[in-house]
Write a structure and sequence with these properties.
- It is a single chain.
- The chain has about 190 residues and is an alpha/beta fold.
- Helix content is about 25%, strand content about 35%.
- The chain is built from five helices and eleven strands, in the order ββββααβαββββαβαβ.
- The strands form four sheets. Strands 6-5-9-10-11 form a five-stranded parallel β-sheet, with helices on both faces. A two-stranded antiparallel ribbon has the order 1-2.
- Strand 1 and strand 2 form a beta hairpin.
- It is globular.
């Protein structure tokens, strides 16, 4: 498929094609938020309605290979893709938030990042107990955030169907970490 913008046309590889691609619509910002990290900016994709629509369609193609009833969008960029996919797929949406942002009793899981440590929380009353949950985030880097979200849900008694992301940074081996933690996964684009 093609993501196009007013400034350029860029070929991307579909989920059924080759697993590498050029990423000018998701430009890398070196050394952000700290030295050694290459931050992928999703702003150009979001400002382009056709590209964003195609990204959600491709995520939906991936999601169709999982048996799920609800989507968990992971703060913060996972909220964007998770909510759009939930709307597109007619599925329930729950949010994994950073600490102390939820007003009701919550489940919490701490985890390490490429650049520090953090925690995720979900409200205890948000998801029905029989839910099968698909994790959605923008980028799979080292896998730490998705593993933490999976542990959070599993420790709370939920079934994790799998995880999907828009972009996987292949060199960081996040897919291997997800596989080690029995989290089926896939990504639209792999860099």
């Amino acid at each position: 498929f093609f993501f196009s913008s007013r400034r350029r046309h860029t070929r991307y590889i579909s989920v059924t094609g080759v697993q590498t691609c050029a990423l000018p619509i998701l430009p890398g910002i070196p050394d952000f938020p700290k030295p050694g990290i290459l931050f992928r900016d999703i702003s150009p994709l979001l400002e382009n309605p056709s590209a964003f629509k195609e990204a959600i369609a491709q995520l939906n193609t991936l999601a169709n290979s999982f048996d799920y009833t609800h989507i968990l969008g992971i703060e913060s960029r996972g909220f964007i893709f998770g909510s759009a996919l939930a709307h597109h797929a007619h599925k329930g949406l729950a949010l994994a938030r950073k600490p102390n942002k939820l007003p009701l009793a919550s489940h919490r899981e701490a985890y390490g990042l490429e650049y520090g440590a953090d925690s995720l929380e979900i409200q205890q009353s948000t998801i029905p107990q029989n839910a099968k949950i698909l994790l959605v985030d923008d980028v799979l880097a080292t896998g730490g955030t998705l593993v933490a979200a999976s542990k959070l849900l599993r420790n709370a008694g939920y079934v994790v169907s799998g995880a999907i992301t828009l972009l996987e940074i292949g060199a960081l081996n996040g897919r291997a970490k997800l596989n080690e933690n029995q989290i089926p996964n896939n990504s639209v684009l792999i860099s």
